[in-house]
Each structure stands twice: as C-alpha cells, then as structure tokens.
C-alpha cells in the first residue's frame, strides 16, 4: 500500500472546488491513457459539494462521461430516491447533469428492490466481479480514484471502529447496527478499498482533526478504519485547515493561502 500524501486547503469550500478540479484532471488523464476510467463516490457534506463543484465548472466537459464507470463505496439501505441515500445526493449534485451511460452507473440496491441487505451486498459483489479484468488480479476492479469521506470517529465508507465488517475479507458486506443512522448499510470492505489505484480521503472541520491525526499515524484499521484507507499506487488526504490542525507540523502541504 502507498504512503499517504497530505494536501491542506484553506476551508471546506476551497477544498471541494480543489478536489473537483483534481478529479477532472485525473479522469481526463486516465481516459487519454486507457480509454475509460472508474470513480468511486462517497456521500457527506464535502463529498456532495465536490460533485456539485464538478457540475458547475466548464472543465467538466473535458471528461468523456460515456466512458466513465461510477461506483459507490457505501450506501444507506433505504429506498431509491430517499434523501438519505448517497446515490440521491450524487444524482442531484452531478450525475443527472452529465451524459453518463446508465449501464455504467453501478448503484447499491435498497429494500425497494425486494432484496435484503445481505442480498444487496452479494449482488454488488457480483457486479464488481463482472467488471474486474484479469489484470486486476482480484474480485473487484482496480478503481482509478476512490473518494472517501471520514467521520470524527475515523470511519470510512460504512466501516465503523471495532465492527465485524473490518475483519471481513469479502468485497462487499451488509452492515447492521451502525452507530450513525440509518442503522443498516451496504459497504465495500478494506480489501476492496485497498484494491484501488488511488484512494483520496477528503475531510473538513475541526471535529475531524483528531481522526485525521490517528489515520496518519501507526494506528490499526480495526480501531481507526481510515488508517486502512490506502491505495495501491497513491493515497491522498485532502483536508481543510481545521481538519489538518492536529497533524504534526510539516506533514501537510499547504495548497491555498
């Protein structure tokens, strides 16, 4: 796994716009090199603001949206269209405003599909496995960019400290009893996260600062899940100044005055 790099931006608004620009640049570069690209989305305030910033910039037209696969790192197990779903926020912020191939938008199914949470997780695992190529050497694709938010407890996706999902070696799991509502969720596991070429952890706010410090230390991922959020070739912690306020001096590169 790669060693994290840290980039610090002035505030949450600048952070969202900077991550948006970084995503566009990365997707364009990958598509130029390989023809298509894959992006794993996250929810949360900054994650959704980042997608909205992509939608608002003319530079979005540099991306060939028809040649982009969209995945999710986790989803709340609530019905399609529910405002709590990460998919709902992503569609409103960006996905409904660009020319995506619907077959390449891979959603995690909710209870309105008739599936249980376990069945939904299994179905997503099958979809991931179908998309994996021989050169990926595993049950999931090597995602080009995986976006992850992070909670004040250092959770990423729906992998919460000390919960059984952190020990699971399957690609996707159902999570029950989440300490953050809603209680039932679907989540990629750490092995799936670590299969990504690049993992970008995006966090803003002083309440995240302690978790950021732990995630960049030698903490184990069972108690600090974000410590296990690492990509194969690159890991970025993209932070605002408040979230970066407790990391050791000199660790973060200031990107905005």
Notes on the structure:
The model has no long low-confidence stretch (mean pLDDT 96). Strands 3-2-5-8-9-1-10 form a seven-stranded parallel sheet. Strand 2 (37-41), helix 2 (44-56) and strand 3 form a beta-alpha-beta unit. The chain has 257 residues and is of the alpha/beta class. The longest helix is centred in the first third of the chain and has 23 residues, at 12-34. The chain is globular, with a radius of gyration of 17 Å. The protein starts with a strand and ends with a strand. Helices cover 27% and strands 18% of the residues.
| N→C terminal distance | 31 Å
What is the number of helical segments per DSSP (H or I, 4+ residues)? 6
Oligomeric state, counting identical vs distinct chains: single chain
What is the total tally of β strands?
10
Rg measurement, Å: 17 Å
* C-alpha geometry: globular
Strand order of the largest sheet: 3-2-5-8-9-1-10
Mean pLDDT: 96
- The amount of beta strand, in percent, is 15-25%
Low-confidence residue ranges: none
Helix content: 25-40%
Report the structural category.
alpha/beta
The main sheet comes to: 7 strands, parallel
N-to-C SSE string, H for helix and E for strand: EHEHEEHHEEEHEHEE
């Amino acid at each position: 796994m790669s060693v994290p790099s840290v980039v610090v931006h002035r505030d949450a608004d600048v952070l969202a716009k900077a991550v948006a620009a970084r995503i566009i640049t990365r997707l364009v570069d990958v598509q130029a090199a390989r023809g298509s690209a894959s992006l794993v989305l996250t929810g949360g305030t900054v994650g959704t603001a980042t997608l909205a910033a992509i939608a608002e910039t003319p530079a979005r037209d540099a991306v060939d949206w028809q040649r982009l696969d969209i995945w999710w790192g986790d989803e709340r197990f609530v019905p399609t269209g529910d405002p709590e779903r990460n998919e709902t926020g992503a569609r409103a912020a960006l996905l409904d405003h660009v020319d995506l191939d619907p077959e390449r938008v891979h959603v995690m199914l909710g209870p309105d599909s008739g599936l249980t949470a376990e069945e939904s997780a299994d179905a997503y695992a099958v979809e991931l496995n179908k998309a994996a190529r021989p050169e990926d050497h595993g049950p999931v694709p090597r995602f080009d960019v995986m976006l992850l938010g992070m909670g004040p407890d250092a959770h990423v996706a729906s992998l919460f400290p000390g919960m059984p999902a952190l020990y699971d070696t399957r690609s996707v799991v159902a999570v029950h009893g989440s300490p953050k509502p809603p209680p039932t969720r679907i989540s990629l596991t750490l092995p799936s996260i670590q299969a990504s070429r690049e993992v970008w952890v995006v966090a803003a706010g002083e309440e995240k600062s302690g978790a950021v410090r732990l995630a960049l230390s030698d903490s184990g991922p069972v108690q600090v899940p974000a410590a296990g959020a690492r990509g194969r070739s690159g890991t970025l912690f993209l932070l605002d100044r408040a979230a970066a306020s407790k990391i050791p001096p000199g660790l973060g590169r200031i990107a905005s005055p």
